[in-house]
Amino acid sequence: RSYHVFLLLFVLLAVLVIVASVVTQHMTAEAFNRVVEQTDGIIRSQVWLDELSRSLLEVNAAGNNIFKSQDVPTERGNFRFHLVELRGHVGGLSGDFLNRPSFERDVDDMVEAEQHIFDCFDELSCAPIGSEAEETLLAEAAQSMAEMDAAQARAMEVLGHARRVLRQRQQAIQDEGKQ
After folding, report:
1. Which of 93, 96, 103, 105 is nearest to 168 (CA)?
2. At CA 80, angle to CA 74 and CA 82, rounded to 5?
3. What are the percentages of helix, strand and coil residues in the chain, rounded to 5?
4. How far apart are CA 18 and CA 118, in angstroms?
């Protein structure tokens, strides 16, 4: 009889060990899946920020390129094309890691200055070469270029802050996973 009690206790202990092992494995798998999901979301957000940065640079490039090419229709077309792309990227992802109002305000300032550059070059095509009007328009365009580049730099700072937020979140996930 005592042999049966001992055997029963041994079987119960084995069942408890197996159940505990299965529960622990399940909890580990769930934690792993959570980490993978969170990391995947951060990676998607980082890729989105890279695309947004590229679009921002391309929008700004047309306002700088006009000084060399002086081809208003082509550069304005490039500007509009890339601006539509940029606006599409801005609307393409949601998240609290980006100060969207600040970024959009900086982009609007950049766009306003860039449009003024194109307007100056439109007028330049009608101004006599070497005239005071030409000098004034070039000076206005140069001032607008400085404003455009300053607004772009502010927008890039906002994107840089968003990248740092995502890196901190990724580090927190890694730290949590080590525990």
Report:
1. 96
2. 100
3. 90, 0, 10
4. 74
Q: Which residues of the chain have pLDDT under 50?
A: none
Residue 11 burial (C-beta neighbours within 10 Å; 0-12, 13-18, 19+): exposed
Q: Strands (DSSP E) along the chain, which ranges?
A: none
7-54 pLDDT, tens digit each: 888 889 988 989 899 888 988 888 777 777 888 888 888 999 999 999
H/E stretch holding 43 reads helix 2-69
The string over 30-60, giving b where at least 16 C-beta atoms fall within 10 Å of a residue's C-beta and e elsewhere, is eeeeeeeebeebbeebbebbebbbebbebbb
Q: Given this model, what pLDDT does residue 39 score?
A: 81
Q: CA 41, CA 165: separation in Å to the nearest integer?
A: 13
The number of CA neighbours under 13 Å toward the Cβ of 3 is 0
What span, in angstroms and rounded, lies between the C-alpha atoms of 62 and 39?
36
Number of H helices, E strands in the chain: 4, 0
Between CA 162 and CA 113 the distance in angstroms is 25
